[in-house]
Amino acid sequence: MKTIIVGMPQGADLAKRIAKRLRAPFSPLWSVPFPDGESHLRFTAQVKGRHVVLVQSMHPAPNDGMIECIFAINTARELGAKKVTLVAPYLAYMRQDKRFTPLECQSNRIMARLLSCADRIVTVDPHLHRIDRLGQIFGKTRTACLSANALIGEYLRKQHPGAVIVGPDAESYQWAERIAEHLRAHAVVLRKKRYSSYTVRIKVPDELVVKGRDVVIVDDIISTGHTIMEPAKQMLRRGARRVYVVAVHGIFASDALRRLQRMGLRVITTNTIATPVSRIDVAPLIADALK
Ligand code: R5P
Question: What per-residue confidence (pLDDT) applies to 189?
């Protein structure tokens, strides 16, 4: 069965890179909204009899991104695709994994149910906190949960050997510890208390000596940036030489990236979401998973 890689509106660059690595044809999904804002999509190549790989990152427009995926998966099937894989390098709504207040929508499960019309979902470092496997929300749809840890580890080994690796909150051990292992180092994982989307408290323990050293704060997602700013401020105050920040997914809500950079932090992300600081390419990881 021949594969075709289809670049969706929020995934075209990465789709091209994946297609190049797989030596598979690339085709962009045409998308121009109707005047009333409804999505209007069209395949630009035949998909009949093919394995259609749709590539769409769910940012900066998670809701449009999701609807486009649902439309594209179903349209590919109607047009005779044999198999449809959705590559969503950044999977939105994964942090809504609990009804945090009564009557609230727990969106991760509903999002998964809606995307289960694909045969397979491939994603990179989804935010797994209160669930530990994607299968728990995706039911029978096959899922591949890739991790950028080795790529990030390799990048840091070359660029910042000897830095202190810090995870800003309990969940970040999945990245900080794995990446530190790659560097044959030890990670320090901090504790965070979240009061609202914009208010968090994180205490850097006094025993952590950073004076004169480079520090790398590692997390899966940077959204408002507060999870990073809190510990970074304390480390700069305590004389850290340079503070680097590495995240898999750079959401950077409103002007978060600018605010982090204004503090003097050097920010690096992968390209699961295309950002001005995407320095680590996940295309090889995804291409290997599709082989
Ligand atoms: C949540 O636990 C995630 O791992 C990130 O730490 C969080 O999403 C970052 O959010 P923000 O940048 O808004 O503090």
Answer: 97
